């Protein structure tokens, strides 16, 4: 079957198999080796046996994986080393005798080496960074050609000196190599060791095991250990199990054919694990047709094929030459596999740096003679052919190549692509692997040929394209099966295959030839009979003979009728081969190669060639001649010409350009929206149940911005931070922030970053209450893993991001939030990313369903708009390529095939600029030596300053990624500029990441003048500060690092970008340099798809009517007619039919002086100046300089409107484009025909305009390499540009080639999810080790990712985010407290009732008793309550009703925002370290156990025993007395009056609460300053569970269920009654201990649940009795207030003590008197002993405290308010009295219920309400009492007499309170005539005689309220009311309650 070894019994072959058999039997414990002869003869059919699995698996990747290589028919037997002897050393790097073998340790020690032995370095998988030294007999090592190594091994240990190891297996055990597969010398012996000049042992050349002699200069690389390779799952392939075939491993096996052969055939997914770099003995063991029975093919044919082929020897096993560590695992490193196209689901190969692109070939064990590469190949072909290994059967091997190997490149990429497409993705695994077969090999190859045939001559094949073709083909061929499986569950019996006839191997060459026949020989098919070697030889022969000159691709196929195919594809097209071979270099190797060419002088020949490109024969001679002739003439031309222009002059007479303006810094709507999104994500992290971020514990925000090591980006970021004012806003700096202070907050990730970062970490550790935001800007840069061994000994700054930002301290710090910011987030969106998809924030789209979401006066112009500009039919595109430049590069590429194309391109471009500068300067003969594009750029660069009175010009960005080449370009251009005397016309700036900006003195002076800078030391530090400077910026560095460019950028010359590095990030990053904000024009229709905008920006000039078309055409659909699209796309300048260079230059070019239509320009002139968008990150000229310390930010300078344009020139019409162009006068010598001169010249002067005018309306023009241009402008099947489907980043790879395409309709979020599913990080990526695999717990909880297009303003957005985050944290530490003036102050008479001892700390009892009681209510919450009259106020209260308009009653109460002090009371959201235990959430404790205790006492007024329940946590039981531990609750402990301890608060605090389990301020830990106190929450029964959940460590008093619907009066009533009962119990208990009853502390505190802070007023009295005094208010703890009050002398004589309500408007009048005898509210200290007989009314909902205060006073008791203490009450929007809703009992009644409906006539059909009767009564009286007391309305001289109660009758009615109790204190009522009488539930103390004392107006009204109708009648009779009052039947009412709700009844009457 074509197996070259089948049946050949040569000596060496026999020897090898015998050796294998013996060695296997020595190793094996259980397996009986197969007989030697059966191994030799049966191998052709049955492939590798279990034994040979170890010796014949060429790609040792699978062995290393341990998953695929050694599986067999019998159970697997992985290689196991013998256990080491007892007691011996097993440390890595030491031998079993314990001696150190590491090269670093013993390099300088003398080592005894016996004769004939050599010292070699061995690699251990467990020590990838070290070489182990051993001595080996050189007979067993290969010679320089990789030949003649004896089979076997002989070696000595240099550590312990043990000699005579005959087996490498034994030797590797002794050296502790710890391998997982069979040890082989080829795999582990890597380097010869040599002694250097100092005599130290160092690593020498590689040991040239078979084939590696072909490798050119090989840089050293560390091994890539097996631990770094992803298991099979990560490569998107099913992990095969040893016992069963994995899906996709038997490709195109005919259905029904027996799956013979060992199981390893199925499981070793060679290419899936590593990119299959085989050494010729590639044995992809999945070839289907081999797996037949023995009779599959006649043996003689198999034996006779290549009888002369040399059998492989064990020592020449398939070991990848380009990979020093191929044996270490499935990650061969090598130049050849360095494919950027690698889109396969395989491990990436860590790259090895090569010095020449020459590259690596993959020599191989030959079957047949090696193929010789001809010596003069490169000379003849002009390019190195790239040979892609394709398909080989298991016995066909890729041929040896020998000879001139530097001139070919061999790559395994195609093989890898084939292998990946053979393995069915997991996505299709559900359909069953056996039924749906992968695409057949023949079909793959045929499709490849089809693909190559349709490629254009200037296109390069892409692996991504090929994969998609395979995927589509596979899908189409299996569509029916897939549908069937989607509809029905998979069947055990596979259905019959479809009718499509498969391509057979015999048909393949014919079909391929047929396909290639149509392509004009660009694809050449070579069919060979025996092996690929003859095909390769044939190809080389044809190449040398020049017969493949037109051929780009050679496909070599070896197809036998009976065996699988072998194939390879050689790329011979000069253009394609060059690009592909260069694309195999990593960026580092690319730089190394270019450096090498520059250093070794290889480029000199190129330079010499260019210097001759000149009519005179030598450019430099011509330049010198020009210089001498023109010296001194040109220097003054610039200034002279600029001042003669008609220009506006400023006061001092210097010219002023109105286009140049500085913009104030402002935040754009977009940035604000993004900042708010960021904030909401941070809040959602804090709100999640994971407790990963406790925002409540942070007081301020600090930050550090990490940026790449670019000086310009660093300065730019400092500038943004400085300007945003964020440091002041965050309170991090005081006024006058200096630049040095700003530097503390920006970290450049360079060598010095570590120390600054350490101090940041230390700072975060020391400030746990500061939230640190670590911003990683430009986050796609440097994702190299810090642990990745490839870089362990290289540059310390590589992997810095990983080392710093991913360190353990950052990950674990609870107060560090990390924000990654990037325009290209793809590399952070892999299967292993640490960022949760929920924590990604994407820049919002401008439009949603045609609506402009964030209207701005500027529109962003980014990549998609640039691409769209190439599709629009009527305008010149902004993306262009230069065909003449490309043609010259191609031609020179052939002439200098050994030079890297980057070198050639740079030299060509420099030559073009040189020639253009000469042509524009007057040497018109040079214009033929440049391209039209370059000439246009140079003309406009030189002419732009002449259009402006101030000399403002445009910037040309020349991107030269390779720094050495940039230096070459800079020197050459600067030299030419000097010779042409143009030094003062434009500047040339070399911008490199490592250095700042250097510009000449002349231009520095200009910039200072333009920007009005007087500082002598000032230098521009960012590119933005070069606004308006005419310059060429040579921008170097492999990657841009986020540098922003000014708006004067007109040309972005990207012709030199490394077009071979085709990954999405690299391309978009380069194009991001041109991203731009353009002023949006008002006339645009709604949106006109933004194309109108683009077209306007692109359009050079046009006639007026064309300009009118602009809007309408712009709004048409994107898909224009194919003709139009085609025309605009093929717009390279040379393709035009015009021969005149002038016209084509004008057509493609854009000179600042070219005409804009006159119409719009006049309109613009009249239009008022438009404000420009912010400078932030976009191109804005504002904020150019660092204001110096003494100066403020730069002020705005007025700007002109952007449309001051020249008149259109009627002279020039350029054929097919019909666009008019005006050519500036100076350019005519270079590009304009002389006939145009007269027309063009004067126009320039008459309508000169500064290039800055257009700058804000037009994005720059971008020149690209043709390859990149095609990538961007061609679309794939999804409608997206080709570039979008490229591999997203160098550091990731595709998880599978079976992936769908990105879709055009995908949002950023969907793109992120796509990449998260389909990409995996390479081993060098920092996320490689984090195996999140999509699990939520793999994400870091405090990491966010902000992505948005380049230059769109992300910096401004995240700085704004810091500001609003800081504001929010401050807001979290602030609280809204009621801030209202006391009411009714002016109604008080100034009389003798003032407490005059102003400095008394406590009230003097005798003095205080003499004070009269102030009946007036002063609490502002009662502003709408009835005034209480006393005889003192009767006169002055007439005007009271006018104080408020009725509509003001419902106005929201006034509040003030206060910062919480350290003595505040908190709700459940506060949890700091100190109060964890207090709250009951301490980690040491389980949730607090509580016990429920019943407590009963009888109360006669209620007529029954009251049953209360206490919930007492275990930690609070010491406050109570129990009958025995855990027994019956007896009482609550009370202290003694005489106790003077300051350790605790004596008074128990009771807080009644409802509906505020989360928001009630029950955490008094800080308020009490940590002092011990007893706090009881009083809750309703139905809320008990929820309160207990939120406050597990609080004591609860649970009210009986009958009070579930009661108001606050019931709670107050029960608290007081319980407390008195407890006082009695304690007196009895302590009396037994000998304590007097009056010594027991009688006070309790009743506090509202909204009391948040307490203040004290410090008064400084100016002297005794002095009226002058000063005072100040400060925050104090509740402990301070309580201890002060509790230590008052004679305190037990006071019944009620309270404090003032805080107000910011408190005046000296309120605090002058220290004490008042008046109402107290909210926070009261109640003496339950004195008030024993005064009760709260348990029925009340409102005003129950006023009612109680009046009762207490009338009982003759003292109420004292400490005016110098105040309480702040927080506004809480939930719970409290708001929790009572009055609704209808009829559930479907939709009507709102108004207070007038709260009462009704008895027995009426009124809607009954679901609310307590008492609440309805109080609410009705509050709003509608004038119905009952019409005479009382606004009649404050005649109040309503209210007996024994205070009810609020509304603010317009006054009441007079009297108590009916004997001996009570009442006001004198003899001089009052009352306008009404209110009798509310009056008891037996109210009698007829009592009422007779009072006098009423005629017509006064009476209202009697009773519990039922019966008692109503009895009351009327008992009080003899009918004597004086007249009643009518219709005057009876009831509250609108149903009978079962016990309504209250009213009776009203009139006084007779």
Question: Could you characterize the architecture of this molecule?
Answer:
α12 runs parallel beside α15. Strands 36, 37, 40, 41, 42, 43, 44, 45, 46, 47, 48 and 49 form a 12-stranded mixed beta sheet that branches. Strands 34-54-53-55-56-58-57-51 form an 8-stranded mixed beta sheet. The protein has a 6-stranded parallel beta sheet with strand order 16-15-17-18-32-19, sandwiched between helices. It has 58 helices and 58 strands. 28% of the residues lie in helices and 15% in strands. With 1952 residues, it is an alpha/beta fold.
Short description:
The chain is an alpha/beta fold and 1952 residues long.
Question: What's the structural blueprint in terms of helices and strands?
Answer:
Blueprint: H1 11-27, H2 36-46, H3 50-56, H4 61-65, H5 103-106, E1 117-124, E2 127-137, E3 155-156, H6 168-174, H7 185-188, E4 189-195, E5 201-206, H8 264-267, H9 270-273, H10 299-304, E6 371-373, H11 377-381, E7 386-389, E8 401-403, E9 409-411, H12 413-422, H13 426-429, H14 441-454, H15 463-477, H16 479-487, H17 508-516, E10 523-528, H18 532-545, E11 553-558, E12 566-571, H19 574-583, H20 587-599, H21 604-611, H22 619-630, H23 637-644, E13 648-649, E14 655-656, H24 669-687, E15 700-707, H25 711-724, H26 726-729, H27 739-742, E16 746-748, H28 753-766, E17 770-777, H29 800-805, H30 808-812, E18 816-822, E19 840-842, E20 847-848, E21 851-852, E22 858-861, H31 863-871, E23 879-881, H32 883-895, H33 901-920, H34 932-943, E24 955-959, H35 963-979, E25 987-991, H36 1001-1011, E26 1031-1035, E27 1049-1053, H37 1064-1071, E28 1076-1079, H38 1091-1098, H39 1104-1114, H40 1122-1129, H41 1141-1148, H42 1158-1166, H43 1228-1231, H44 1237-1246, H45 1251-1255, E29 1261-1264, H46 1266-1273, E30 1292-1294, H47 1308-1318, E31 1319-1321, E32 1343-1347, H48 1354-1372, ...
Parallel strand pairs: 6-8, 7-9, 10-11, 15-16, 15-17, 17-18, 18-32, 19-32, 23-29, 24-26, 24-27, 25-26, 27-29, 34-54, 40-41, 40-43, 41-42, 46-49, 53-54, 53-55, 55-56
Antiparallel strand pairs: 1-2, 1-4, 2-3, 4-5, 7-12, 11-12, 13-14, 20-21, 22-28, 30-31, 33-35, 36-37, 37-42, 38-39, 43-48, 44-45, 44-49, 46-48, 47-49, 50-52, 51-57, 56-58, 57-58
């Amino acid at each position: 079957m074509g197996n070259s070894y089948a049946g050949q019994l040569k000596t060496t072959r026999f020897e090898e198999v015998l050796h294998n058999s013996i060695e296997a039997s020595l190793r094996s414990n259980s397996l009986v080796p197969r007989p030697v002869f059966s191994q030799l003869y049966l191998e052709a059919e049955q492939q590798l046996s279990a034994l040979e699995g170890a010796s014949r698996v060429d790609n040792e990747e699978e062995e290393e994986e341990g998953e695929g290589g050694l599986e067999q028919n019998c159970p697997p037997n992985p290689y196991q080393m013998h256990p080491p002897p007892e007691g011996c050393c097993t440390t890595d790097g030491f031998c079993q005798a314990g001696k150190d073998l590491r090269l670093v340790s013993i390099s300088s020690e003398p080592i005894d080496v016996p004769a004939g032995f050599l010292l070699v370095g061995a690699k251990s998988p467990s020590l990838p960074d070290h070489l182990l030294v051993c001595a080996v007999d050189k007979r067993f090592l290969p010679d320089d050609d990789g030949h003649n190594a004896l089979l076997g091994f002989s070696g000595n240990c240099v550590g312990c000196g043990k000699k005579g190891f005959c087996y490498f297996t034994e030797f590797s055990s002794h050296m502790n190599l710890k391998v997982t597969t069979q040890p082989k010398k080829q795999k582990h012996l890597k380097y010869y060791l040599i002694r250097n000049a100092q005599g130290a042992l160092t690593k020498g050349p590689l040991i040239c095991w078979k084939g590696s002699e072909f490798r050119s200069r090989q840089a050293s690389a560390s091994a890539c250990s097996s631990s770094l390779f992803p298991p099979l799952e990560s490569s998107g392939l099913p992990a095969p199990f040893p016992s069963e075939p994995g899906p996709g491993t038997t490709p195109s096996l005919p259905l029904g054919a027996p799956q013979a052969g060992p199981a390893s055939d199925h499981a070793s997914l060679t290419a899936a694990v590593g990119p299959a770099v085989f050494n010729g003995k590639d044995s992809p063991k999945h070839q289907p047709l081999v797996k037949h029975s023995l009779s599959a093919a006649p043996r003689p044919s198999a034996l006779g094929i290549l009888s002369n082929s040399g059998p492989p020897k064990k020592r020449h096993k398939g070991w990848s030459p380009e990979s020093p560590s191929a044996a270490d695992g499935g990650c061969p490193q090598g130049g050849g596999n360095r494919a950027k196209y690698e889109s396969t689901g395989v491990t990436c190969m860590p790259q090895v740096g090569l010095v020449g692109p020459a590259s690596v070939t993959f020599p191989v064990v030959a079957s047949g003679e090696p193929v010789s590469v001809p010596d003069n190949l490169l000379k003849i072909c002009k390019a190195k052919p790239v040979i892609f290994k394709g398909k080989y059967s298991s016995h066909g091997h890729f041929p040896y190549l020998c000879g001139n190997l530097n001139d070919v490149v061999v790559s395994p990429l195609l093989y890898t692509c084939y292998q990946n497409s053979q393995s069915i993705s997991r996505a299709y695994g559900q359909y069953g692997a056996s039924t749906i077969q992968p695409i057949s090999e023949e079909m793959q190859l045929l499709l490849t040929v089809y693909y190559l045939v349709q490629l254009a001559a200037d296109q390069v094949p892409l692996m991504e394209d090929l994969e998609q073709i395979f995927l589509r083909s596979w899908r189409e061929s299996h569509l029916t099966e897939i549908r069937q499986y989607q509809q029905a569950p998979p069947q055990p019996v596979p259905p019959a295959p479809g009718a499509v006839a498969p391509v057979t191997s015999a048909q393949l060459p014919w079909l391929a030839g047929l396909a290639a026949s149509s392509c004009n020989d660009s694809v050449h098919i070579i069919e060979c009979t025996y092996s690929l070697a003859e095909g390769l030889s044939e190809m080389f022969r044809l190449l040398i003979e020049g017969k493949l000159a037109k051929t780009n691709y050679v496909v070599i196929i070896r197809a036998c009728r009976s065996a699988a195919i072998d194939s390879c594809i050689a790329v011979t097209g000069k253009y394609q081969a060059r690009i592909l071979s260069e694309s195999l270099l990593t960026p580092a190797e690319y730089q190394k190669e270019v450096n090498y060419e520059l250093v070794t002088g290889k480029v000199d020949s190129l330079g010499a060639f260019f210097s001759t490109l000149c009519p005179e024969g030598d450019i430099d001679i011509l330049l010198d001649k020009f210089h001498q002739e023109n010296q001194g003439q040109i220097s003054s031309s610039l200034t002279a010409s600029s001042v003669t222009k008609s220009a506006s002059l400023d006061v001092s007479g210097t010219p002023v350009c109105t286009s140049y303006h500085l913009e104030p810094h402002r935040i754009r709507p977009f940035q604000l929206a993004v900042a708010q999104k960021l904030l909401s994500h941070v809040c959602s992290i804090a709100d999640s149940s994971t407790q990963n971020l406790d925002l409540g514990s942070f007081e301020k925000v600090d930050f550090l911005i990490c940026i790449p090591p670019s000086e310009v980006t660093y300065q730019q970021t400092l500038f943004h931070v400085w300007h945003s004012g964020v440091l002041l806003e965050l309170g991090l700096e005081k006024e006058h922030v200096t630049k040095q202070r700003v530097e503390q907050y920006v970290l450049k990730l360079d060598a010095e970053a570590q120390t600054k970062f350490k101090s940041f970490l230390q700072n975060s550790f020391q400030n746990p209450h500061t939230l640190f935001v670590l911003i990683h800007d430009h986050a796609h840069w440097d994702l190299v893993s810090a642990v990745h061994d490839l870089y362990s000994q290289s540059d310390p700054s590589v992997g810095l991001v990983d080392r710093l930002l991913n360190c353990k301290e950052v990950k674990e710090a609870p107060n560090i939030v990390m924000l990654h910011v990037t325009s290209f987030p793809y590399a952070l969106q892999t299967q292993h990313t640490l960022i949760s998809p929920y924590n990604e924030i994407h820049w919002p789209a401008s439009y949603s369903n045609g609506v402009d979401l964030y209207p701005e006066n500027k529109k962003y112009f980014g990549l998609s708009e640039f691409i769209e500009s190439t599709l629009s039919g009527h305008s010149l595109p902004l993306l262009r390529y230069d065909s003449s430049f490309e043609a010259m590069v191609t031609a020179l590429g052939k002439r200098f095939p050994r030079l890297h194309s980057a070198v050639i391109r740079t030299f060509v471009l420099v030559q073009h600029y040189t020639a253009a500068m000469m042509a524009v300067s007057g040497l018109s003969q040079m214009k033929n030596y440049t391209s039209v594009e370059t000439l246009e750029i140079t003309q406009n660069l030189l002419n732009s300053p002449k259009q402006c009175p101030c000399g403002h010009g445009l910037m040309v960005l020349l991107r030269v990624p390779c720094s050495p080449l940039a230096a070459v370009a800079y020197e050459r251009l600067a030299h030419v500029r000097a010779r042409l005397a143009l030094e003062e016309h434009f500047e040339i700036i070399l911008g490199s990441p490592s250095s700042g900006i250097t510009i000449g003195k002349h231009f520095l002076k200009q910039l200072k003048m333009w920007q009005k800078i007087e500082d002598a030391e000032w230098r521009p530090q960012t590119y933005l500060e070069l606004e308006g400077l005419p310059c060429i910026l040579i921008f170097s560095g492999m990657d841009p690092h986020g540098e922003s460019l000014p708006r004067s950028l007109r040309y972005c010359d990207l012709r030199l970008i490394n077009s071979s590095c085709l990954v999405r990030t690299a391309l978009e990053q380069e194009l991001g340099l041109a991203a731009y904000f353009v002023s949006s024009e008002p006339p645009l229709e709604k949106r006109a798809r933004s194309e109108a905008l683009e077209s306007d920006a692109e359009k050079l000039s046009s006639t007026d009517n064309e300009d009118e078309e602009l809007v309408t055409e712009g709004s048409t659909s994107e898909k224009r007619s194919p003709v139009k699209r085609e025309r605009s796309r093929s717009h390279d300048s040379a393709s035009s039919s015009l021969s005149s260079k002038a016209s084509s230059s004008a057509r493609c070019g854009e000179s600042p002086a070219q005409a804009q239509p006159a119409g719009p320009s006049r309109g613009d002139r009249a239009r008022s100046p438009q404000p420009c968008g912010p400078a932030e990150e976009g191109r804005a000229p504002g904020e150019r300089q660092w204001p110096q310390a003494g100066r403020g930010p730069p002020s705005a300078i007025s700007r002109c409107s952007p449309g001051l344009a020249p008149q259109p020139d009627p002279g020039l019409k350029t054929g097919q484009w019909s666009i008019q162009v005006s050519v500036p006068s100076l350019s005519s010598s270079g590009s304009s025909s002389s006939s145009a001169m007269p027309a063009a010249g004067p126009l320039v002067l008459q309508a000169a305009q500064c290039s800055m005018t257009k700058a804000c309306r037009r994005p720059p023009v971008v020149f690209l390499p043709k390859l990149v241009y095609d990538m961007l402008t061609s679309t794939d099947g999804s409608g997206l540009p080709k570039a979008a489907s490229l591999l997203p980043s160098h550091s990731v790879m595709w998880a599978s080639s079976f992936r769908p395409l990105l879709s055009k309709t995908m949002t950023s979020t969907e793109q992120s999810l796509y990449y998260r599913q389909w990409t995996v990080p390479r081993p060098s990526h920092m996320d490689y080790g984090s195996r999140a695999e999509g699990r939520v717990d793999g994400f870091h909880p405090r990491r966010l990712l902000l992505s948005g297009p380049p230059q769109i303003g992300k910096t401004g957005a995240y700085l704004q985010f810091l500001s609003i985050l800081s504001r929010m944290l401050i807001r979290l530490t602030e609280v809204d407290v009621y801030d209202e003036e006391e009411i009714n102050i002016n109604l008080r008479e100034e009389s003798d009732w003032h407490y005059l001892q102003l400095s008394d700390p406590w009230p003097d009892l005798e003095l205080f008793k003499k004070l009269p009681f102030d009946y007036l209510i002063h609490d502002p919450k009662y502003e709408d309550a009835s005034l209480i009259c006393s005889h003192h106020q009767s006169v002055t209260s007439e005007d009271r009703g006018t104080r408020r308009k009725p509509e003001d009653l419902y106005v929201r109460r006034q509040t003030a925002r206060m910062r919480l002090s350290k003595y505040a009371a908190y709700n459940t959201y506060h949890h700091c370290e100190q109060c964890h235990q207090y709250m009951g959430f301490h980690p040491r404790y389980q949730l607090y156990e509580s016990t429920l205790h019943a407590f009963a006492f009888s109360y006669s007024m209620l007529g029954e025993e009251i049953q209360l329940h206490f919930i007492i946590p275990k930690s609070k039981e010491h406050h109570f007395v129990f009958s025995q531990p855990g027994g019956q609750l007896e009482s609550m402990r009370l202290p003694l009056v005489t106790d003077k301890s300051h350790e605790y608060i004596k008074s128990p605090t009771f807080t009644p609460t409802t509906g505020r389990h989360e928001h009630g301020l029950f955490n008094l830990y800080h308020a009490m300053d940590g002092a011990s106190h007893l706090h009881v929450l009083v809750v309703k029964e139905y809320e008990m569970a929820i309160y207990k959940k939120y406050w597990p460590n609080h004591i609860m008093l649970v009210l009986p269920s009958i009070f579930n619907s009661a108001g606050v009066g019931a709670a107050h009533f029960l608290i007081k009654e319980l407390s008195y009962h407890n006082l009695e119990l304690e007196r009895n208990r302590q009396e037994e201990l000998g304590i007097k009853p009056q010594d027991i502390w009688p006070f309790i505190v009743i506090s509202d649940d909204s009391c948040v802070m307490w203040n004290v007023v410090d008064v400084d009295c100016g002297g005794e009795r002095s009226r002058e005094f000063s005072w100040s208010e400060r925050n104090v703890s509740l402990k301070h207030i309580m201890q002060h009050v509790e230590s008052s002398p004679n305190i037990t004589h006071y019944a009620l003590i309270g404090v003032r309500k805080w107000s910011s408007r408190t005046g000296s009048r309120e605090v002058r008197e220290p004490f008042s005898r008046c109402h107290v509210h909210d926070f009261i200290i109640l003496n339950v002993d004195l008030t024993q007989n005064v009760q709260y009314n348990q029925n009340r909902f409102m005003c129950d405290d006023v009612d109680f205060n009046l009762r207490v006073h009338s009982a003759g008791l003292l109420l004292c308010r400490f005016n110098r203490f105040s309480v702040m009450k927080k506004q809480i929007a939930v719970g409290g009295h708001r929790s009572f809703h009055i609704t209808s009992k009829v559930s479907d009644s939709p009507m709102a219920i108004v207070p007038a409906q709260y009462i009704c006539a008895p027995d009426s059909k009124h809607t009954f309400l679901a609310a307590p009767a008492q609440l309805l009564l109080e609410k009705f009286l509050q709003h509608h009492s004038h119905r009952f007391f019409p005479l009382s309305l606004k009649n404050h001289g005649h109040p309503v007499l209210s007996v024994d109660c205070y009810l609020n009758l509304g603010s317009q009615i006054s009441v007079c309170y009297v108590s009916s109790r004997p001996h009570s204190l009442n006001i004198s009522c003899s001089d009052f005539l009352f306008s009404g009488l209110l009798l509310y539930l009056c008891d037996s103390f109210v009698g007829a005689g009592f009422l007779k004392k009072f006098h009423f107006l005629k017509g006064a009204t009476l209202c009697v309220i009773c519990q039922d109708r019966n008692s109503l009648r009895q009351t009327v009779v008992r009080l003899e009311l009918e004597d004086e009052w007249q009643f009518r039947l219709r005057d009876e009412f009831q509250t609108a309650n149903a009978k079962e709700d016990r309504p209250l009844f009213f009776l009203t009457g009139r006084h007779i």
